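Structure tokens please, single chain.
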Amino acid sequence: MKQKIIVSSIIVLSLLVFYFFNKTNKVILEGMTMGTTFKIIYYCPIYKSDNNINHKIINSLNNDSKTFSTYSNISEISRFNLKRTLGQIKVSSSFLELLNLSKRLYRESDGLYDPTVKPLVDLWGFGKNKKLVVPSNNIINEVRTIVGLNNIIIEEKKVRKVFKHIELDFSSSAKGLAVDNVQRILTKNKVKSYLIEIGGEISASQFKGKKDFWIVGIVDPRYKQKKEYAKINLINQSIATSGDYQQYFKYKNKFYSHIINPKTGFPIEHKLTSVTVVANSCAEADAYATLLMLMSVKDGLNFTEKNENLEALFLIKSGNEIIPLKTKGFPFLALNKE
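Here you go.
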């Protein structure tokens, strides 16, 4: 009889422990960061403090903004850009993480992906000053002489400039890294279900709650107001989109995108209007989406198919229509009906 009571007690205790460690509360945290909006949905275990987790997330977002904002003169990257020295410069771990990622993509793309393109972006008016102009070929060629990621050398945890006036802009990967940093906080705090979105860059866990999947939308580049072109299930992956519709200007009936080819010094000119990349990390998805926008569709598809950790969706303009092309492993697309 005593043995039965003990067994029953163990079963009850086990059920209580199981309930305690699996019960969660839904938390929604949203606001502004890095010049854009963010929204984070996660299911917090009841034995964890969501206030404490939220505090850590906000601190992380503030730190990333203080590190990568090119609109603040006191951010780490702005201070780096303003330093006219050939000596070693100490940088943060986040700065070094994106620099190493950029170096990898720079090598993979033969210099097509290059965050030192900042002076050219500024020249065309897409930087901090927002003076949209079409520069002369002579000025473009002159500015191109201080562009090239090979002119920034990593020496352990410090970096060194080859040219004093070389500058960096991590806008094509910083929001993605911010998403990854939030994901690390949630994982460390035993959160198993989450959706993190910062300025359209997204990371999701396997399940929404306990059973459902996370469904995310892909923006239709034909409309100024946000409208979904399609929806996909995102399962333990990250997604980011780059497009020519986000920032641009027209001069003498010609379209000029904010995406500048560092090799030519000119904005991209092709029918590809957006690329959405699915990858293991959001920083990678963010950076590769920009890289693929710099390629032709054919080259982009070939490049992505050779990389087993990437999947991509290419949206191509054809008059008022959009032609979608995707890699074989890209998640199933549910197209929105007009």
